[in-house]
Amino acid sequence: MVYAVRRRRRSKLPPGPPRLPLLGNLLQAPKASPWILFQKWAQEYGPLVSVDFGGTIVILISDYDIAKELLDKRASTYSARPRMVMASELICKDQHILLRQPNARYVLHQRLEAPVFSPRAAPSYEPIQDMESKVLLHNLLESNDIRNNFEIYAASIAYLLMYGFRILTNDEWQMHTAHAALDDFVHAAQPGSWLVDSMPLLKYLPAFIAPFKRQATAFYKRSTNLYMRNLEQGLRSKSWNWAKDFAAAKEATQMSEEELAWDVGVLQDAAIETSDVFLKTFTLACVSHPDFISRAQNEIDEVVGCNGSRMPDFPDLSQMPYVHAIIEEVFRWRHVMPAGVAHATSKDDWYNGYLIPKGATIIPLWKAMREDHTRYENPMEFRPDRWLKAKGQLNNWGYGRRICAGRHIAKNTITIAVARILWAFHVRPADGKKVVVDESMFTGGFASHPKGFEVSFEPRSEMHRMTIEGAYERVEKDPETLMARVWNLQVKSGLKPRST
Ligand code: HEM
């Protein structure tokens, strides 16, 4: 009887590849770059596909409108996260905001964070992004090493806001530890790697007979040590920062120091890799589809003048539609997370006659949506012009209640960097040969990094070089002075920072 009901329910699921009894499609579960197989399935079975990974139903959506309908409009059903026993429950002890289930604790953390993420707060961080983007240009004059330079840029902005100190070399112990912790996390989040993910009861085994629990504890300790030490340093700072602001909030009175440390620490993880990957992908577009560069430089020069004596500032960006079109096209051409970010359902739902069962993992398959030939002419080509007339944006920042909390800040971080890099440099392949892009040039993992190409940043003129050097010398770099400026800007705009 139970079996018959289950079979009837399964027959209502969206189409998908044939399944084995019990295991379903588990043996096909991709480990490294899941979007490749998922996109193949989408091409074969349509915009809504179901697969069964050992009892977990996964729904792949590769159509913008369906994703919007389900994940945005029906957000009350689609805002949970897939259960990840190893990555979320054992390694993070349920303290990772991205993986939290939408319960009262999650809402408490959202409330704690909301004031620093508001659209009104975002412009107050411009002094930090202005300074760090001037340092980025200077670093690019000295070295073409985008792996280091972009990461220093993204990390220094995040550390300044969150803890009030800067990242200067990428050789700081915090960066080494953060890299190791991220590797731990990516390893732990790989589907099919841990038996405990399919058999959650195993998590109650004592550690001495469960090696995965000892490993989880080691990973947890590494991240906790990093986050606690950063929090302590942030709290000692004389000026305002997010750590101090959160610690003074009423929501924090319901949290242990460790829970608070994890809250801030996870934000730092969310901020750095995403912005770094975006800027590397933009650079890959420059060396593979260079035709757009001169048009962008003409637009920028029209606003700031063409003699190289003035670089674009934040107020100039509103006069640069083509620069904004470049940002949008980078997200379309190759999103930082090609497989989107998974949500989960909290109850049964129906779409177009198909059952989307409670507890299903919902994957908005961004790579497939963005390479849809019926929507984009030559989708593999990088063409910012697509966005000059198009209205609105794609779903670059996710959906519904789980939409990226840091998007207003992140947009400024990437847009000022792109505008200034294009103003400053001829961005070219290091060996002069146009780079041909294919999937092998991207890493697997949650965020997919472009790799295996070399690029040169040559100042557009001697005057550009002198302007970069002058701006670097003159810009205020002292963390406490800058963060005091941020605090003042917040107060001026009517916000009420919770600490000084
Ligand atoms: C280019 C940079 C960035 C990109 C592309 C990006 C993208 C995303 C995406 C796609 C999600 C998942 C949305 C969903 O599940 O539907 C997300 C979540 C999140 N992002 Fe970002 N992000 C960026 C930068 C940042 C920054 C700078 C911060 C904070 C300072 C941040 C904080 C968060 C947080 C807290 C979440 C979790 C939201 C939740 O599950 O409730 N992100 N981001």
Task: Summarize the SSE layout with pairings.
Elements: H1 2-11, H2 34-45, E1 48-53, E2 56-61, H3 64-73, H4 75-78, H5 85-91, H6 104-117, H7 126-142, H8 146-163, H9 173-188, H10 195-198, H11 211-236, H12 242-247, H13 257-288, H14 291-304, H15 321-333, E3 343-344, E4 349-351, E5 354-356, E6 361-364, H16 366-370, H17 386-389, H18 407-424, E7 425-429, E8 455-459, H19 462-474, H20 479-492
Parallel strand pairs: 2-6
Antiparallel strand pairs: 1-2, 3-6, 4-5, 7-8
Protoporphyrin IX containing FE is lined by residues 97-98, 267, 270-271, 274-275, 278, 336-337, 341, 397-399, 402-406, 409-410, 414.
Characteristic terms for this protein:
Cyt_P450_E_grp-I, binds protoporphyrin IX containing FE, Cytochrome P450, iron, four-stranded mixed beta sheet, oxidoreductase, Cytochrome p450, 500 residues, metal-binding, alpha+beta
Can you tell me about this structure?
By secondary structure, this protein is of the alpha+beta class. It has a domain at 107-337 and 377-493: Cytochrome p450 (Orthogonal Bundle). The protein is 51% helix and 7% strand. The protein contains 20 helices and eight strands. Strand 1 (48-53) and strand 2 (56-61) form a beta hairpin. The chain starts with a helix and ends in an 8-residue tail after the last helix. The structure holds protoporphyrin IX containing FE (HEM). Residues 97-98, 267, 270-271, 274-275, 278, 336-337, 341, 397-399, 402-406, 409-410, 414 line the site of protoporphyrin IX containing FE.
